[in-house]
Amino acid sequence: MYPFKGRKKGETKKERQYCNYTLETKAEGEIDEMSYQVARVLRPTSKEIIFLCIGSDRSTGDSFGPLVGTMLRENEVPYPVFGTLAEPVHALNLKSVFKEIKKQFNNPFIFGIDACLGGYHQIGSIFLTKGPFCPGEAMSKSLPELGDYHLKAVVNYLDPLFPQQSLNGTRLDTVMNLAKITTKIIVKAV
């Protein structure tokens, strides 16, 4: 779940991280720029686009993905969305949902959305990154890497001794604001 962990050997942060947004600035221009970058990722693909929003509604910090999934559906995004508050995609059902996606769609373009933990200075940041991501990484869960691109929001700091407490102790206000901004970025992009 840490935004820069799992990088391939030799890759730099600059090579993988395309742009970011932070709650501290609240600048509409940054939202527009990130929307533009997301559109540049989505528009050229000929594959069917899937939004895969990872997380659980049983943990405040981890509810970011399902909140975004719910908001995307409410905004009638014209692509399939997996992972909402009503039907979350989390560690217990991720593999079965991923199998269902592979069955329903022929080699889709998967755009992942997930919460992550980072440093204090990163809280409130949203990162757009090329390549797959590993859900549950901060919790040391062994889940499959997935996605072609992904947006990760840093919802809290990473306490290496108690990462679960970092997620559970996250402020709902931070998660809601990040979910609203992420939804706005995606809606503008599509």
Give an overview in words.
This protein is 34% helix and 20% strand. The chain is built from six helices and six strands; from the N terminus they run αβαβαβαβββαα. The chain is globular, with a radius of gyration of 15 Å. The model is unreliable at 1-16 (pLDDT under 50).
Write a concise keyword list for the protein shown above.
34% helix, alpha/beta, globular, single chain, 190 residues, disordered N terminus, 6 helices, 20% strand
How would a crystallographer describe the biggest sheet?
A: 6 strands, mixed
Portion in beta strands? 15-25%
| Estimated radius of gyration | 15 Å
Report, as a whole number of angstroms, the end-to-end distance. 26 Å
Element layout with pairings:
Blueprint: H1 13-16, E1 17-22, H2 28-42, E2 49-53, H3 64-74, E3 81-82, H4 94-104, E4 109-118, E5 125-130, E6 149-157, H5 163-168, H6 172-189
Parallel strand pairs: 2-3, 2-4, 4-6
Antiparallel strand pairs: 1-5, 5-6
